[in-house]
């Protein structure tokens, strides 16, 4: 169970780092399985060229255009990922934050292994994951498991603390719902950004309504992160939307 101080920190900042949750033996197995699926290009996956983020290849035909950004469907992909989606440190911690007895993993969102490859990874601009999600409320929490060290040089995440509680004017966002970095409304808030560096085996819990961004990978090694999204039974996907495409999994 999380301490009262940890729960309070999450409520204030919108995120919480849990250090050294996954053992080195388990991490080795996870990295080996991820490398196997990447090298064999086991579908489904998303290419860097399809996201159109800064630094991504311009097309699938361009150099690096076949670089995989995400291995999708992690929960259904292999039992090893499913085990970590259900790890009690994650599920009980999120229950503590949401103050719920029943928790669901939503396989329609995230449910993937995020990768950042050495040569053709892209930057991720300031956004909320909920920008294109359709739920009855915003109370969704992401679990981000670092399968290796995540530092500034290989594209570690930055978060705007407390941004899960912000109201943001429409003209402060661009057409893709990214924060405009040159907008006067955003200037002071962007100055509060925190780099969230992780060690291998750390878990980051963060609100899907928190603004976050990440750099590209400038090292010679791939970066892997296992990511799932959870919510309580009081949060419902809206019918006939992408968020309701797959049935939530009770954990």
Q: What distinguishing features does this structure have?
A:
Jelly Rolls, 251 residues, four-stranded antiparallel sheet, 13 strands, 23% strand, globular
Topology, element by element:
Blueprint (H helix, E strand, L loop, with lengths): L3 H10 L1 E4 L5 H16 L5 E3 H4 L16 E5 L1 H4 L1 H7 L2 H11 L4 E3 L6 E5 L7 E4 L12 E7 L10 E3 L24 H7 L3 E3 L6 E5 L4 E3 L8 E10 L16 E2 L1
Antiparallel strand pairs: 1-10, 2-3, 3-5, 4-12, 4-13, 5-12, 6-11, 7-10, 7-12, 8-9, 8-11
Question: How would you portray this structure in words?
Answer:
- The protein has 251 residues and is α+β, with helices and mostly antiparallel strands.
- It has a single domain, classed as Sandwich (Jelly Rolls).
- Helices cover 24% and strands 23% of the residues.
- It contains 7 helices and 13 strands.
- The strands form 2 sheets. Strands 1, 2, 3, 4, 5, 7, 10, 12 and 13 form a 9-stranded antiparallel beta sheet that branches. The protein has a 4-stranded antiparallel beta sheet with strand order 6-11-8-9, with no helix packed on it.
- The longest helix is centred in the N-terminal third of the chain and has 16 residues, at 24-39.
- It is globular, with a radius of gyration of 17 Å.
- The protein starts with a helix and ends with a strand.
Rg for CA atoms: 17 Å
Low-confidence stretches: none
The CATH topology is Jelly Rolls
Number of helices: 7
Helix content: 10-25%
Per CATH, the class reads: Mainly Beta
Strand content: 15-25%
Instruction: State mean pLDDT (0 to 100 scale).
Output: 96
Q: Which term fits the overall shape?
A: globular
CATH superfamily: q2cbj1_9rhob like domain
Number of domains: 1
Secondary-structure element string: HEHEHEHHHEEEEEHEEEEE
Number of strands: 13
First-residue to last-residue Cα separation: 16 Å
Tell me the major beta sheet.
9 strands, antiparallel
The SS-based structural class is alpha+beta
What is the level-2 CATH architecture name? Sandwich
